[in-house]
Each structure stands twice: as C-alpha cells, then as structure tokens.
C-alpha cells in the first residue's frame, strides 16, 4: 500500500486495522444471515424450540456485527479537539451495549422455554431435519470463531475478540441444541425445550462477561500487576531515572494510558530533566502496547507528602533575601533555587565587578551566615563567582 509522506505510521496502522476488521466482520455477517434464516425456518417446520432459540442467537450475532461495523468505523478516526485521546473507547461502549443486549435476549429465551416446559402439550417430537441443521450450525459457528479470533489477536482488538467469543458461545449453544434435538428424537421430548433454556443461559453468561469487562474499562480500571511490572522496569532502566512512584494506568480499548512520576537528580537543569522524561516516555511507547505516556519529573520522592508545596515563590524569596541582607546583593545577579525537603537551597552567582572587591564578598558572606541561623525558608545559600566558572 503506497502511503503519502504526510501520513503518520499510526494513521497507516489504523487504516489497515479498520480494513481488516471490516473484512472479517462482513464474513461474519454473511455466515450469520444464512444461519439465521435457515435455523428459524427449519426450526419452525421441524417444531424445534431449541433450534429457533439458536436462530435468534444467530440473529443477535447479525445485529452485533452491524454494531461492530459501526463502532469500528468511528473508533478508527484520528484524535481531534473534542477527543484528544482518539475514539477507541467507542469499541468499549459498543462491547458494553452488546453485552447488555445479550443478557436481555438470554433472559427472554429462558423465560419462554420455562413457560412452555410447564405445559405437557408442548412436549412434541421434532423432525430429523432439526438435527441436521443443528450439526451444520455447530460446524459453521466453530469455524467462524476460529477465524474471527485469529483476526482479533492480530489486530489486538477488544471488540473483535468480543465478537469472536460471541461466535464461540454460539458454537457451545449449538452443541447444546444438537444434544437436545437428539434426545428429543430418542424419546426424551422435554430435552428440546430444556436445550432452549440452556441456550438462553449461555447467552446471558456471555453477555455478562462482555458487559462487565467493558464496564471495567469505562471506570478506568488499570492494567494487571504483570503488565505494570514490565512498564515499571522499562521506566526504572532509563538512564538518569533514580526512582519511580505514582505509576498509574487506565485502559483505552486494546491499549493503555500511562501516568508516571520519575525521580531525577534535583540539581540538573530543566532541559536535562525534560530530556530524561522524553527518553522514558519513548521507551515505554516502543516496548509496550501503550497509546500515550505522561511522565512527571520529581526532584524528590513526593509520593507520601509534598513538603515544599507551602514555600513561597521565586519573586517573594528574592525580595525576602534583599531585605534580610540589607540590600547587600548586587542587582541582576543570577540566582538558582532548589526546593527540597521543605526548604530552599540557593546558589547566587556574583559578577566579576562585585567579586573584585574582596571586602564586599566577605561582608555578604557574613550576612548570609547570620541569615541561615534561624531562617524559616532557606537551608543553605552558596555564593559562587562567575569568573570561577
């Protein structure tokens, strides 16, 4: 596939992902259309409630395929102003809707079968055609499951995987139908209706699993401990990272969003700290199935407390120094402040003109020493000479 240079690799991946998902879903739809028509028609003429229930299950597959196509198309859209993280959670919402729909359908089938089982007049023998159709359905559903699951694993799509396992639940329910119809033909006439009830239960079970998993993602459930350990190891091994705390994650469809606080040398420059953060971020993106990473730079471990949060800002501290030192500081000097462990450590760089008078430097140092004896803000103040750099 030829791609213009202006298109990012991520856009190409999303396009290929969408096309493969669409193709597999169209295959699933074609299979389910055929099975739905045949199962309901044969079930009606063969008087098999189990086969009709399985046909309705196939109809639910068809409806879910339409939902998957719609969600897949919209989730493949690139990020925009209203959706800065993209549209991938449309897949999650679609999975939740599918789960709710399946639970409702399963309960309805169970109730219908239960009511009919209470009437002995409904216990009639089915036609052999129902057994043939049930076997054909079982083979078709199992084959469709294996095909869809292979595509879902290749694309890492939660929604396609959900649709694949839905087909596997259909294969399981078709097996139940085979047993129920065969038992009915052998003289145990109640087994057909019992099989219909079991099919309803299987549908409820699968719907609950899908819906619960989607709901867990929508409430920002994090990654597993195993996945967290791998991401933590990647961040810690980044050169310049001294520690890690407050590692948080949340799922975004088949990927995840990561938020981490890394500990670095508190006296490096802002630009070096930013460089380390970018290195850590790029390593996580390259080595893990992650959509985005937010890395916070910390000069100290503030996981349990933030002791420097209540200290005054730079403008206040510079005015404070000037007042406490009685204006002895030369104007325009460079001052570097380090906010560490609830106190401020300052580095004041004196220009050559000021340092040319040793008496001024000594007098300033005495004032600084006196200030530090009982100062509420400063732990240390170091005077540095620019001509010594």
TrEMBL record:
Its main location: membrane. This is Cation transporter. Belongs to the cation diffusion facilitator (CDF) transporter (TC 2.A.4) family. Keywords: Membrane, Transmembrane, Transmembrane helix, Transport. Residues 26-219 form the Cation efflux protein transmembrane domain. It comes from the Bacteria. The lineage of its organism: Bacteria, Pseudomonadati, Pseudomonadota, Hydrogenophilia, Hydrogenophilia incertae sedis. Residues 223-300 form the Cation efflux protein cytoplasmic domain. One of its GO terms (molecular function) is monoatomic cation transmembrane transporter activity. It is a multi-pass membrane protein. It is found in: Membrane. Pfam families: Cation_efflux, ZT_dimer. One of its GO terms (cellular component) is membrane. InterPro entries: Cation_efflux (IPR002524), Cation_efflux_CTD (IPR027470), Cation_efflux_CTD_sf (IPR036837), Cation_efflux_TM (IPR058533), Cation_efflux_TMD_sf (IPR027469), CDF_Transporter (IPR050291). The chain crosses the membrane at residues 26-46, 93-115, 127-149, 175-208. It comes from Pelomicrobium methylotrophicum.
């Amino acid at each position: 596939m030829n791609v213009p240079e202006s298109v990012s690799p991520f856009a190409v991946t999303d396009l290929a992902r969408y096309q493969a998902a669409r193709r597999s879903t169209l295959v699933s739809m074609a299979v389910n259309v055929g099975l739905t028509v045949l199962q309901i028609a044969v079930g009606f003429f063969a008087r098999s409630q189990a086969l009709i229930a399985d046909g309705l299950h196939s109809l639910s597959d068809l409806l879910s395929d339409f939902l998957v196509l719609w969600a897949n198309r919209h989730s493949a859209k690139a990020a925009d102003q209203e959706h800065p993280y993209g549209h991938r959670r449309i897949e999650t919402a679609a999975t939740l809707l599918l789960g709710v729909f399946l639970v409702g359908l399963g309960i309805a089938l169970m109730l219908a079968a239960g009511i009919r089982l209470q009437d002995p007049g409904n216990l009639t023998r089915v036609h052999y055609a129902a057994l043939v159709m049930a076997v054909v359905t079982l083979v078709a559903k199992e084959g469709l499951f294996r095909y869809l699951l292979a595509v879902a694993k290749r694309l890492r799509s939660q929604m396609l995987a959900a649709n694949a396992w839905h087909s596997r639940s259909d294969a399981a329910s078709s097996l139940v139908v085979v047993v129920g119809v065969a038992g009915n033909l052998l003289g145990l006439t109640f087994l057909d209706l019992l099989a219909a009830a079991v099919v309803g239960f299987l549908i409820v079970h699968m719907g609950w699993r899908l819906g619960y998993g989607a709901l867990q993602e929508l409430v920002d459930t994090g990654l597993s401990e195993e996945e967290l350990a791998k991401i933590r190891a990647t961040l810690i091994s980044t050169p310049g990272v001294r520690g890690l705390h407050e590692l948080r994650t949340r799922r975004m469809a088949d990927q995840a969003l990561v938020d981490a606080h890394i500990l670095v040398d508190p006296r490096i420059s802002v630009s070096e700290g930013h460089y380390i953060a970018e290195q850590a971020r790029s390593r996580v993106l390259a080595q893990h199935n992650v959509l985005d990473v937010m890395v916070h730079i910390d000069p100290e471990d503030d996981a349990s407390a933030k002791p420097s949060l209540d200290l005054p800002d730079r403008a206040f501290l510079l005015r404070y120094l000037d007042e406490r030192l009685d204006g002895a500081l030369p104007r325009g000097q460079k001052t570097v402040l380090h906010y560490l462990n609830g106190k401020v450590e300052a580095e004041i760089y004196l220009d050559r003109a000021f340092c040319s008078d040793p008496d001024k430097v000594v007098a300033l140092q005495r004032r600084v020493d006196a200030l530090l004896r009982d100062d509420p803000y400063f732990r240390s103040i170091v005077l540095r000479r620019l001509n010594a750099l």
